[in-house]
Amino acid sequence: MELLKGKTAIITGASRGIGRAIAIKFAEHGAFVGINYFKSKDGAEETLGEVKKLSDGMLLEADVSDYGEVEDMVNKFLERTGSIDIVVNNAGIYRRSSFLNISSRQWDEVMSVNLKGCYNVCMHSIPHMKKGGRIIFISSQLAFKGSSHGADYAASKAGILGLMRSLALELADKKINVNAVAPGTIDTDIIASYTEKQRREREMQIPLKRIGSPEDIANACLFLASSLSGYITGETIHVNGGLYIH
């Protein structure tokens, strides 16, 4: 069953990890996928190769924190597709730092990519979602519980939820559903430095006794992108194995 057959989707930060998993999952279900990347062209091309085995798609190079680059990216996508049905705001950066070690430059960089990037993508995409659609934000469990080693990241991900709820209210009459997914500990680059001991200790903290996979997040996004979630807007789905129950 192709839940997204005939739909077009832009996924930011899709060169690896969660973004790549979402792109492949959407392609499995028939979507045309715009694969945004900034620096990781090789990774984006690998994602595109997997997408084209299942459906079709294109590469979209842009720094999401740059308003003009995002505008050009959206226009390039529209030249190929003519419409936008789904937007997944996934691009983000994480710098492990205690608060007093966060420089002003780092704070601005994290906010520019993680939060302003969502503003830029939504600002340029929403006018072209004329038949309704879906906007999905990738937040984090840290938006709810905070972080002792990433206050900038946690603050940016909490800000995303404020934007999500506001857009859900504002865009409801346009038949655009707006929701978020809050991942827990997921097997991506963020935890690549974990030792085997650290991984086992983390798994023991999680009620389902495993670290999540990018596909776990992709499955939640598929649900929110499809007609199955037609009566859901302004909500956050927590995908964390029970580590944090909100």
Q: Could you give me the name of the CATH homologous superfamily? A: NAD(P)-binding Rossmann-like Domain
Oligomer: single chain
How many beta-strand runs?
7
Overall mean pLDDT score? 96
Q: Output the CATH topology.
A: Rossmann fold
Shape: globular
What is the helix/strand order?
A: EHEHEHEHEHHEHHE
**Helicity range:** 40-55%
Rounded to the nearest angstrom, the distance between the terminal CA atoms is 32 Å
Computed structural class = alpha/beta
Number of helices: 8
Unreliable segments (pLDDT under 50, ≥5 consecutive)?
none
Largest sheet entry: 7 strands, parallel
The Rg value, from CA coordinates, equals 17 Å
Using the coordinates above, name the CATH class. Alpha Beta
CATH architecture: 3-Layer(aba) Sandwich
Strand content: 15-25%
Number of domains: 1
Biggest sheet: strand arrangement: 3-2-1-4-5-6-7
